[in-house]
Amino acid sequence: MANFVPVDEFDLVIFGGTGDLAQRKLLPAMYHRVADGQITGDSRIIAASRGDISRDEYLHSVEQSLRSNLPDGEFRDDHWANLRERIHYARCDALAPDQWTALVELLGGHDDRVRVAYLATAPALFGPIAQGLRDNGLVTASSRIVLEKPLGHDYASASEINNQVGACFAENQIYRIDHYLGKETVQNLLALRFANSLFEPLWRRGSIDHVQITVAEDLGVEGRVEYYDKIGALRDMVQNHLMQLVCLVAMEAPSSLHHDSVRDEKIKVLRALRPITGDKLRSNTVRAQYKAGAINGATVPGYIDELGGIESTTETFVALKLEIDNWRWSNVPFYVRTGKRLPAKHSEIVIDFQDVPHSIFPEQRFEVQSNRLTIRLQPDEGVKLSVMAKEPGPGSFNLRPVALDLSFEEAFGIRYPDAYERLLMEVLRGNPALFMRRDEVEAAWHWIDTIIAGWEETKHKVETYVAGSWGPAGASSMLDRDGRVWQPEV
Ligand code: BG6
After folding, report:
1. Which residues contact 153 (CB under 8 A, 6 or more apart)?
2. Quick one: which of 288, 345, 286, 294 has its CA closest to 316?
3. Mutation test of ligand 1: which of 24, 179, 229, 381 has the most ligand atoms closer than 8 Å to its C-beta?
4. Which range (5-19, 365-379, 447-461) has the least confidence?
5. What is the mean pLDDT of the chain?
6. Which of 135, 358, 389, 450 has the fewest CB atoms inside 10 Å of its own CB, making it the most exposed?
7. Cβ(124)–Cβ(158) under 8 Å?
8. Best mutation site among 228, 236, 342, 380 for ligand 1, i.e. most ligand atoms within 8 A of its Cβ?
9. Whole-prediction pTM value?
10. 241 among known catalytic residues
């Protein structure tokens, strides 16, 4: 059973409190923490936004969105009553110096408690909000600031935001979100690697043939098309989520779970990534955009149709072959891919071990296959190890691949909390281990910028793929050239 330790009294100010992230993720996350009794005392959630609305109007909108966003049967009047009385609304225009009064008044007299400013706004506002908090005397010793992604759109813009926020908050007060780090199975990677002695001797070149990471979504860009068209899959998913997964798979064992121990190891991986330039752009990168197709029997429009027919070369799918220049991973490629409008929401990490050096078995229906460790991130979180076994029966000696399959939900029998529940509690507790340090974000951008510049310079082809397929032909050819195939065969 999960053990919920209550957090100290706090004020959580959500800038962008009327926005999509607040309504869809942050407030439902706080609802669950309230329901589990983790939020106690007079802790408050203060939504700050430009809208001229009353507290009652805001509460009404939160109730509506909780009722529609929580899974069936989870909305309960008693939990809502508890959450409701904690929620306040402050009209605040970050860019207007005279528009901070309501917030200053609400926070007045509470300087001694944990104060978190959660910036669920456009990144262009991160600097001005940090400055507004400082200029209005709202930054206390126990203040923290949370920056949602995207943290800029390249190295230069990320570094500028970091400078602006860094002028008002110390680095240990800044929490840069990558919500993948809050996912239970992503944290389980640490448990799998470092709480089991079985894997470590094999977790390297010589035993592992290659690693694959797939983060597939069946959804398209839908309502976010305007934002997404300026960003694309490489910036939206690879720079943060996929690179963090690569780091957690590839990093050396940290000396402890202390936030800087873990982050020191992750940054070494980012620095060891070989830049993809020149001819490697053609062989090691694939970008593509979805055309109309069908998912689960329903027809879906193409990306350009969603854009309103405007021409665009923004990629909705990326596949990359990464090479890590260090002893552990020399000649062990990491293939990563992510895309929208793929057949299903399905994310997993596959560790493909080397083939047996020599097969003693006669040729047969199932050839001896390499062992494969699959870490399923979503849905149905779990771990699967494929091994070869003898088919039961007298007479012949036939082999067949079988899986040792562990579903975490079945094993632990509890609801898997959303990543934001965990991340919000970590901020309130003051533990930045699951957040990105400045150098990590900037190193990731630095590596991604090289690819973007290369794509622009060489006018890198944007392939197309049919919505509902596993991506463009180029992604399969990339592995085919290396004599490998993508997993999963979902
Ligand atoms: C976000 C991206 O960071 O992650 C979205 O901006 C994407 O485009 C989302 O859909 C995927 O997150 P999850 O948790 O649903 O896998």
Report:
1. 230, 231, 235
2. 288
3. 179
4. 365-379
5. 93
6. 358
7. no
8. 236
9. 0.94
10. yes
pLDDT score of 259 more than 80: yes
Q: Which of 241, 259, 346, 460 is catalytic?
A: 241
Chain center to CA of 207: 28
Summarize the confidence of residues 76-96 as an average pLDDT.
Answer: 95
Q: Got the DSSP string for 338-361?
A: EESS-SS-EEEEEEEEPPPSS--S
Averaged pLDDT, 50-71: 94
Distance 317 CA to ligand 1 centre (A): 13
Q: How much distance in Å is there from the Cα of 172 to the middle of ligand 1?
A: 26
Q: Cβ distance 408 to 129 under 8 Å?
A: no
The model's pLDDT over 116-125, given as tens digits with 9 standing for 90+, comes to 999 999 999 9
- Other CB atoms within a 10 A radius of the CB of residue 438 amount to 19
Residue with tokens 């400045």: 438
Provide the pairing of β-strand 208-216 with 174-176: unpaired
* Tokens encoding 470: 């596993």
Residue 40: CA count within 13 A, CB half-sphere? 7
Ligand 1 pocket, residues with Cβ under 6 angstroms: 149, 179, 217, 236
Residue type, 427: V
**302-329 burial, b if ≥16 CB within 10 A, otherwise e?**
bbbebbeeeebebbbbbbbbbbbeeebb
Q: What is the pLDDT of residue 205?
A: 97
Sheet with 114-119, side-by-side order of all strands? 87-91, 44-49, 10-15, 114-119, 143-147, 174-176
